Amino acid sequence: MQDMTREPTPHGLDKAGLEGTVSFTERMLASDAFMALFREGMALVEATAAYLDGGGREESKGLERNVALAYASESMRLTTRLMQMTSWLLLQRAVNEGELSRDDAEREHRRVVVAMQDTTLGDAVLSQLPETLRRLIERSLVLQARIQRIDNDLKGQTPPPASNPVAGQLGHLAAAFGAKLA
After folding, report:
1. By CB neighbour count within 10 A (0-12 exposed, 13-18 middle, 19+ buried), where does 63 fall?
2. Per-residue CA distances from 86 to 6, 19, 61, 115, 150 (Å)
3. What is the pTM of this model?
4. Sequential DSSP letters for 55-115
5. How confident is the model at residue 139 (pLDDT cuts 50, 70, 90)?
6. Which span out of 52-66, 116-130, 145-159 was modeled with the highest average pLDDT?
7. 5, 72 in Cβ contact below 8 A?
8. Which of 69, 70, 106, 174 is deepest in the core (most CB within 10 A)?
9. Residues 132 and 51: beta-carbon distance below 8 Å
């Protein structure tokens, strides 16, 4: 008979059976690998701030109206993304340094959402943005995806399955020809 008093974990195991174990992700967060991730995140924040306050400000002045609007929108999305990641990184560092317990960090983290934010621009407009901004956006998206994977693992969440591009194309063909393709 199963003991109903044991609390299951997201992986289907009970917590009583996991006491004294440390997850791979928690070990990584307490390692030099996390500090490298932390430094990478902070360097990206500094590089973005320096660009947006300096060269980016000058580059944006010479953009066509629709591209200038895209620049403003994407730079706001970039800074929002970086603020979310910075909050997450600082919480993890506080746990590593003993300033917060893992439980306290989780309570704080509920206020900090590390949500995936892709760019909303089409390739035609995106390609007209200054190269430095595009590189910063790309770096931030890559870093955000890494942090999101770590955060999901920390919470025991599995990421949504990747879309199947072949199935999508088959769906488009079926719709175009009014038939089901198998």
Report:
1. middle
2. 35, 30, 29, 13, 14
3. 0.68
4. HHHHHHHTS-HHHHHHHHHHHHHHHHHHHHHHHHHHHHHHHHTTSS-HHHHHHHHTTS---
5. very high
6. 52-66
7. no
8. 70
9. yes
